[in-house]
Amino acid sequence: MSHYQVVIVGGGTGGITVAARLEKALKKPSIAIIEPSNKHYYQPLWTLVGGGVCPKEESERNEASVIPKSCVWIRDYAESFDPENNKVALASGKELSYDYLVVAPGIQIDWNKIPGLKESLGKDGVCSNYAYEQAEKTWQFISNFKGGNAIFTAPSTPVKCGGAPQKIMYLADDAFRKQGIRDKTNVIAGFAGTVIFGVPEFAKGLSEVVKRKNIDLRLYHDLVELHPEKKEAVFKVKRPNEAESLETIPYEMIHVTPPQSSPDFIKHSPLANAAGWVDVDKHTLQHVKYKNIFGLGDASSLPTSRTGAAIRKQAPTLVQNLLALMNGKSLDANYDGYTSCPLVTGYGKLILAEFDYNNKPKPSFPIIDTTKERWDMYMLKRHGLPYMYWNLMLKGLA
Prior knowledge:
Layout: E1 3-9, H1 13-25, E2 31-34, E3 39-41, H2 46-50, E4 60-62, E5 72-74, E6 78-82, E7 87-90, E8 95-103, E9 108-109, H3 117-120, E10 126-127, H4 135-143, E11 148-154, H5 164-178, E12 185-191, H6 200-212, E13 216-218, E14 221-227, E15 232-237, E16 245-250, E17 253-255, E18 260-261, H7 264-267, E19 293-295, H8 308-326, E20 339-346, E21 349-355, H9 375-391
Parallel strand pairs: 1-2, 1-8, 2-5, 8-19, 10-17, 11-12, 11-17, 12-13
Antiparallel strand pairs: 3-4, 6-7, 7-8, 9-18, 14-15, 15-16, 20-21
Helix pairs in contact: 1-8
């Protein structure tokens, strides 16, 4: 077939969750999922892989195992869009046409935007949890660390899970203490942001963690280059009312959160806004120009943190509104920007940050104080959320 009622671009968290919900709702589903990868990953686990808590294989499944039974899996890359004629062109040269399109290709990791990073990744202390094959290298470097500067970076671009750059830093600090080398170690946070966290209620707790752990927090520090042969990291520093400057910091180990952006084929498409993201209404998730197109997840223009928890709330809103459109009804489902960052602050400790578009806390467990470090919330991340992801969310049940 080359025509489907619904074509979904992306077989990651957003695409599969929407497909599973649509499959349950439609009497005769005609759904195609365009996804080139043979593997599906539960990426939030990669922080714990980097911290030595679990093997990387625990985060991986075959893509075929998560594709809903009635959906057709198109193992190809989406290359371009022709929304005026309801068509998607594939890398193979084929075309698919659709009645409705859902765009959820995820975010692009721009390793090349930091000179010296790509070629040094996984070597001589340079690591990143933002790739399946690299997360275990992080633990290798942490567990074999002997002292000196351990740098953890966060870029100025949006990233998958804005809290992830911090989580591995806190785990590393714990590991260095257990290894008896913390007094020989400088843990440096080179973060491009202006604050430790955007929601004050959670920033307070994180600031206390940073102080307790004696972490050297350097805000306004955006990593722009690595000199791996000298083991040096170059940061662009731009503080308010100060001239921009470069600061070079030597390292024995550096965990890099790479710059990220919308996939190139989205940026160059008629679906993108000026910043390159799929341009959707932030409440209905319907495209602002093409009414039979919807978007969600990391490649969308939704002004919230890019997390799986956000998709868990976006997907039912999108599906409800898509079904309403199919039936000629008004789009009444409303996404309020809910997202969640389970902020691991050490082994057995976690601050569960949940908030909406207005950066107001939106707790799932109002009876407990999740602005404080908690063991039960750590266990939720370690065991509860992965179970919910594979067995409920990807099956359209949560």
